[in-house]
Amino acid sequence: RPGMFLRVDTTADTGLAPWLVENGLAHVGGGIAMRRPKTDIAPGRKFKTFALTSQALG
Predict the structure, then answer these.
(1) What's the CA gap between 10 and 53, in Å, rounded?
(2) pTM score, two decimals?
(3) Helix, strand counts (H, E) of the chain
(4) CB neighbour list of residue 7: distance below 8 Å, 6 or more residues apart
(5) To the nearest whole percent, how much of the chain has pLDDT over 70?
(6) What is the three-class DSSP state of 5?
(7) Does 53 have pLDDT greater than 80?
């Protein structure tokens, strides 16, 4: 939706920033990534968080 505001919170280590810019989303600010303390992940479960939307949705 050209001209509309879209907030995407992501951390630098995801590598998404260049892709977002290539797709027309301008970087307009920074922030602090909030995270929980590290916990052990069950064997066989592999996942990666790229972006969180809960704060952006209100």
Answers:
(1) 9
(2) 0.48
(3) 2, 0
(4) 56
(5) 78
(6) coil
(7) no
